Amino acid sequence: MSLQPPQAILFDLDGTLVDTAPDLANATNALRAHHGLAPLPFEIIRRQVSNGGSALVTLALGLEANADGHTQARQFLLDAYEQAVAVHSRVFSPLDVWLEEWNANQRPWGIVTNKPRRYTLPLLEALLLQPGALLCADDLSVKKPAPEPLWEAAHRLGVAPERCWYIGDHVRDMEAAVAAGMTAVAVGYGYISEEDDYQQWPADMWFEECAMLVDALGAFKR
Known about the structure:
A six-stranded parallel β-sheet has the order 5-4-1-6-7-8. Strands 2-3 form a two-stranded antiparallel sheet. Helices cover 41% and strands 13% of the residues. By secondary structure, it is an alpha/beta fold. Helix 1 packs across helix 3 (52-61), helix 1 packs across helix 4 (70-82) and helix 3 crosses helix 4 (70-82).
């Protein structure tokens, strides 16, 4: 690869570093059950996870964000999720093994997510993840695709933005990385809707499978 080796790696959380879809799908179907509806297939829910709680409410109940009852339904879903935030969620394999080796070599890494801290911290604690920098949706006045959370993460790690890779599974992740001056790495194994083509995102690299990403990162473990 012709790009500079990274001094630090920054990850999006849901669908990039951690497979949180099973627990979010359970919360989504709990909302449907509360309204007397049958559960939706997992794969249908999975494709909407990166779009957040409001999108999952719309998927579950057909309520758009400005519809009556949407706010209450979203809170029900989030409450259900908070009660079981890390039952089935796991770091994607083989990224889990790579991360252990990266940590063993004391290399800096962090997470920049649009997930609120209220749900992020219990998840990371359950998975024993300790990023050197963590920026959540409610930490700054702006969130992705704005570059500021990425800049702040790089600052906390003591690494220049241009020496960071930012890895994500949504176009806003790539937009944020480009705006921040970081190497933008798109992954196709995350929560991508059927109509979206991740290879059209403004990235520097694209990886269809997690193993492919790990192969690329493997050159920089030491």
